[in-house]
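Reopening: structure tokens for the magnesium ion complex, inputs below.
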Amino acid sequence: KKKIDIVEKKHCNIGTIGHVDHGKTTLTSAITKVLSQHGSAKYVSYDDIDKAPEEKARGITINAAHVGYSTKARHYAHTDCPGHADYIRNMISGASQMDAAILVVAANDGPMPQTREHLLLAKQVGIQYLIVYINKVDLVDADVIELVEIEMREMLSDFGYDGNKVPVIMGSALKALNDDKSEIGAPSILKLLDTIDNYIPPIIRDLEAPFLMPIDNAFTVPGRGTVIIGTIKRGVMRKNDEAELMGFGQNIKTTLSDIQIFRSSVPEAIAGDNVGVLLRGMKLRVVETGMLLCAAKSETLSNHFQAKVYFLSRSEGGRKKPIFSKYSQQMFSGTWNIACRIDLEPTVDMMMPGDHGVVYLTLLESMVMTQGQPFTIRENNVTVGTGIITATLK
Ligand code: GDP
Ligand code: MG
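Re-run output (same inputs, fresh job):
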């Protein structure tokens, strides 16, 4: 078996997460300040980050600042949100899909409720790499810092990260921002960036996994069959591979008779390629946008999913009334939509507009959905909820 690794980009989406006032914005500004002295960032002041512009992402408004900087290893696009609610919206709607996050925790407070909440969300939305920055170490003694580190490592393990392996850096973002050259000042920022460069591997396209391609379009070639168009999301497709076309309750076995890139036949195509695939004998009328072309026996159809959802508040144009179990609406994801019933956790009586939490979706027809797949819930063509799939259930 040929092992192909292709480095997709020397680019990484990162962000600061953690409890309010623990120093996320100060750290973001300090990173740009320290790197600006090495010529690889433009200094962005605390105030410029904090007055982040409003974004309309999938019908919900998020305040988020996007700051860019480079190290020797990579270019980073860094997201910092002003408020807790902005983090929840940003992460749940997948507005900025972070590859990694810097979890900021103040040494004088230790982990706080929003530290836990952001950590839980990070796990649920599939952020693989976390780096902890214990901030404000100027305010406490060494043994307090040590205790915070122990607490953080335990908490990381509780949430399914490898608490022993996650790098923990100590420092003072404020001192770094004020050009302090002592160990906890600017050098702590360089150490953090160095650690991030080394800890996060190059982002590699997933070519080992079975192939998967969402259907963008389809047409008939008279006498040959149906050609479906899409961009391969993961894996490698080879001519004559067995496949399944799945979605809307259907699971149709088929064979990749021909694969074309830019109208020329190719023996194989990989993740990221935009292809046309000829499925011999396939009837065009059964192909629907929203179906997936999957490697044979690699995916499961289900009409039952667990999801994390945020219901827009009234002022964001959301519902006025609470949401109870058996709430039925249309769910939209990508280019398709389907009728769906939402049930709350058994312990939850109702959710209010502005609330977020775990819900259970039952779709009218079974689909293939992947972890982290974003969706919205609309009522009379108005977005009332936004979420991501966290698990496929039976
Ligand atoms: P955020 O809410 O997590 O973005 O926190 P901010 O960056 O706004 O910081 C909250 C407060 O903590 C501000 O008054 C900062 O000046 C202060 N702060 C940030 N980092 C440090 C630090 O390293 N030491 C001290 N003593 N204060 C800090
Ligand atoms: Mg902030």
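The chain is about 20% helix and 40% strand. The helical segments are 24-36, 46-50, 84-92, 113-124, 142-158, 173-177, 186-199. Marking as resolved unless the reporter disagrees.
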